[in-house]
Amino acid sequence: MPGVIAAIQTFGDRINLHPHLHFLVTEGGVDEAGVFHMIPRIDDSRLAEFFAREVLADLVRKELLSPEWAERLLSWRHTGFNVHSRVRAKTRHEAERVGKYMIRPLLSLERLFLNEKRAQVGYRYGKEAKDLEWMDYLEFIARVTSHIPDKGQVTVRYYGLYANAHRGKIRKAGQAAVPLLTMEEELRPIPSRGWAEMIRKVYEVDPIVCPECGGQMKIITFLTDYSVVDRIINHLKLTFAAERPPPPHIAYQEILVAAETSTE
User: Fold this and answer.
1) Strand partners, 36
2) Which DSSP string corresponds to 167-192?
3) 76-101 pLDDT, tens per residue?
4) Are 7 and 102 within 8 A, CB to CB?
5) Sheet hosting strand 181-184, strand order edge to edge
6) Quick count: other Cβ atoms within 10 Å of Cβ 112?
7) Where are the domains of the chain?
8) How many CB atoms lie within 10 A of CB 220?
């Protein structure tokens, strides 16, 4: 179980529309024995792809986006979704600093200027607030009010180890806060190519092409529980038979393995 604090922000440095999320996440999770397992690496590119698919799928479910446009957006080289996880908080002070940044206010009064003669509002932004943008006062009001949350809307959420329910459960059980034993997970190699491309290259079969109509199939979910897979196969009464033998080099390798086994 990891610990996650998520904060929604809709604004950028110029009080402009820039929806994004900030997360304060533990670099791993705690098992039932209280051992903290630290993950060695976070793959930003894969997280960005997963994030994009989840958001677009949610828009499709709410009928705010067509499935065709969702697939088109995912096919773009730059989808507009990005993940940045290079900021690390090693101390409590650094974690508090990150937390304050996550819930920072919309604007700073120190960066705000007013030109009464021109009825314009100026706002400094950018690195060290060196850039200045002037706007009509009505536009300034519109920018600010567009970022006010709806009544009852929650902009900060807590999950896992950071959730109130989890901490209340620990207090109710009378468990004392003890230092966690840390175990770092072994780094697993991540293939550079996608799984579908690797299957096409090795077995010369496209796993996401429908064998019935030849159309492109969509990945709904991945099942890793063998018992669930077996129940689905038995329920659908599926049988698997290769339409053609494997490539010659694979068949040759299997023959060599069989020969070595029989010799032993």
Assistant:
1) 30, 182
2) HHHHHHTT----PPEEEEPPPPP--S
3) 888 889 999 888 888 888 989 999 99
4) yes
5) 28-30, 35-38, 181-184
6) 13
7) 3-105+151-184, 107-146, 195-263
8) 7
Residue 132 pairs in a beta bridge with 124
Place of tokens 């896992």: 160
pTM of this structure: 0.60
Burial class (CB in 10 A: 0-12, 13-18, 19+), 56: buried
Q: How far apart are CA 107 and CA 110, in angstroms?
A: 9
Q: Could you read off the pLDDT of 231-240 as tens digits, one per residue?
A: 888 888 877 6
3-state secondary structure 210-258: CCCCCCECCCCCCCCCHHHHHHHHHHHCCCCCCCCCCCHHHHHHHHHHH
Place of tokens 């791993």: 28
Cα–Cα distance list, 249 to 196, 202, 203, 261 (Å): 20, 10, 11, 19
Instruction: Give the per-residue SS3 of 104-166.
Output: CCCCCHHHEEEECCCCEEEEEECHHHCEEEEEEHHHHHHHHHCCCCCCCCCCEEEEECCCHHH
- The Cα–Cα gap between 202 and 179 comes to 48
**Which distant-in-sequence residues (6+ apart) come within 8 Å of 166 by Cβ?**
1, 160
Tokens read off for 100: 């304050």
